């Protein structure tokens, strides 16, 4: 693939991915405000943006088998843990941006867990087996991730109560 086309597809993938996430967030806002049809509109178009992102990633050769996809996820999470979030956090602290300090801390702590979970999963998948995993609990405030039938009474990262967790 030619360099300009590849960069355009990478930029388009990033833009479509961001639109997908924004529209899902906007859908939640509309739902909370009592606009179920606006929420549905946002969800539907978010799905279309997801389709666009998937198509771009496919053309970039970014969709592989599960072992390669897990390694890509490990690489991404490790980059966030070792380089990206520490740097972003340091800048936010230097500039005394308390909200950014908090959000980068939350993300960094969650990404550490994600990298470990993906690493464990890859080891099992390399043996041509599926992982054995229970319910995954995600803190809706900070993204802390835990495995178990019940959320922790209190999030160890942000202190949110168990009622603030979503089970998967």
In short:
The protein is built from 4 helices and 3 strands; from the N terminus they run H-H-H-H-E-E-E. It is mainly alpha-helical and 168 residues long.
Spell out the key features of this protein.
168 residues; mainly alpha; Ferritin; Rubrerythrin, domain 2; 3 domains; three-stranded antiparallel sheet; 4 helices; 6% strand
List the topology elements.
Elements: H1 3-32, H2 36-59, H3 66-94, H4 98-125, E1 136-139, E2 145-147, E3 165-167
Antiparallel strand pairs: 1-2, 1-3
Give a verbal description of the structure.
The protein has 168 residues and is mainly alpha-helical. The protein is built from 4 helices and 3 strands. The chain has 3 domains: 57 residues, Ferritin, CATH 1.20.1260.10; 67 residues; 35 residues, Single Sheet (Rubrerythrin, domain 2). Strands 2-1-3 form a 3-stranded antiparallel sheet. Helix 1 runs antiparallel to helix 2 and helix 3 packs antiparallel against helix 4. The longest helix is centred in the N-terminal third of the chain and has 30 residues. It is globular, with a radius of gyration of 18 Å.
């Amino acid at each position: 693939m030619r360099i300009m086309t590849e960069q355009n597809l990478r930029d388009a993938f990033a833009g479509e991915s961001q639109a997908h996430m924004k529209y899902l967030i906007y859908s939640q806002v509309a739902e909370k405000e009592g606009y179920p049809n606006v929420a549905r509109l946002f969800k539907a178009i978010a799905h279309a943006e997801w389709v666009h992102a998937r198509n771009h990633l496919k053309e970039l050769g970014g969709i592989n088998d599960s072992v390669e996809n897990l390694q890509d996820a490990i690489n991404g999470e490790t980059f966030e843990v070792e380089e990206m979030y520490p740097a972003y956090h340091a800048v936010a602290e230097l500039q005394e941006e308390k909200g950014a300090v908090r959000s980068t801390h939350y993300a960094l702590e969650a990404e550490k867990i994600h990298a470990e979970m993906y690493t464990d999963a890859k080891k099992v998948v390399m043996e041509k087996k599926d992982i054995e995993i229970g319910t995954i609990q995600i803190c809706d405030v900070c993204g802390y991730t835990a495995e178990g039938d019940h959320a922790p009474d209190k999030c160890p990262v942000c202190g949110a109560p168990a009622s603030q967790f979503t089970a998967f």
